[in-house]
């Protein structure tokens, strides 16, 4: 992978960035995504934010290599602290982290989202945390995508500010309102995998001494299994 040829996952993230955006890529690593967006004319300018010194230096080298120093600013900062008001950022991308960490980044830096028109978020796990944040903070889920690459399944959530939010069901928080409607083979595979894993955990719990904590966790897993199986079998409509 490089700035000219992204992974399928990052290509799909890039596809959701509006044309002529000013993009902040948080946790940018080698800055491949912002370089790609600027090189292909999707973004006018970009900020590559990285909290770790090593990836920050890699991002700086990549931007220099692509001769994009005038278009891309690389900042060593935690989360959305990389975004300054004068940047005029209109779109934020956060990819390749867990859903709870992405939620934490959005929560900690929400005052820096003023003027941002779109969030493109790609959690590796626990996308539910992002849907819950969107509901609380009045962001609408305008697009969702699920894809498989190298035997790993990823979700992409696209959020835009909203005046009015439609409440989600527990199944929609967990599995995604649009993804449930599309019901693709990859979506089905993901949730069959999850159910299988949860059932193994429940079985192992049954072989251990009962405690209040174990019983609570077991009940939580059984409820999720029931919820998912209802969707997979077409009962949750």
TrEMBL record:
Stored InterPro entries: SAM-dependent_MTases_sf, TrmK
Matches recorded under SUPFAM superfamilies: S-adenosyl-L-methionine-dependent methyltransferases
Coiled coil: 204-231
Keywords: Coiled coil
Source species of the chain: Planococcus shixiaomingii
Protein name, per record: tRNA (Adenine(22)-N(1))-methyltransferase TrmK
Highest taxon in the source lineage: Bacteria
């Amino acid at each position: 992978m490089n700035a000219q040829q992204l992974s399928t996952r990052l290509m799909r993230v890039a596809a959701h960035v509006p044309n002529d955006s000013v993009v902040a890529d948080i946790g940018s690593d080698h800055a491949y995504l912002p370089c790609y967006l600027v090189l292909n004319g999707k973004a006018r300018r970009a900020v590559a934010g990285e909290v770790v010194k090593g990836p920050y230096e890699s991002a700086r080298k990549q931007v220099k290599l692509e001769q994009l120093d005038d278009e891309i600013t690389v900042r060593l900062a935690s989360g959305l602290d990389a975004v300054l008001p004068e940047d005029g950022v209109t779109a934020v991308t956060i990819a390749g982290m867990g859903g709870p960490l992405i939620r934490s980044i959005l929560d900690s830096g929400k005052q820096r989202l003023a003027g941002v028109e779109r969030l493109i978020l790609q959690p590796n796990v626990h996308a539910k945390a992002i849907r819950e944040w969107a509901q609380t903070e009045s962001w609408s889920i305008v697009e969702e995508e699920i894809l498989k690459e190298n035997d790993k399944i990823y979700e992409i959530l696209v959020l835009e500010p909203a005046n009015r939010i439609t409440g989600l069901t527990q199944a929609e928080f967990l599995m995604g309102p649009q993804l449930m409607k599309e019901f693709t083979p990859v979506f089905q595979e993901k949730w069959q995998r999850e159910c299988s894993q949860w059932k193994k955990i429940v079985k192992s719990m049954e072989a251990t001494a009962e405690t209040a904590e174990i019983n609570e966790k077991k009940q939580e897993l059984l409820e999720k299994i029931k919820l998912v199986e209802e969707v997979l079998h077409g009962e949750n409509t």
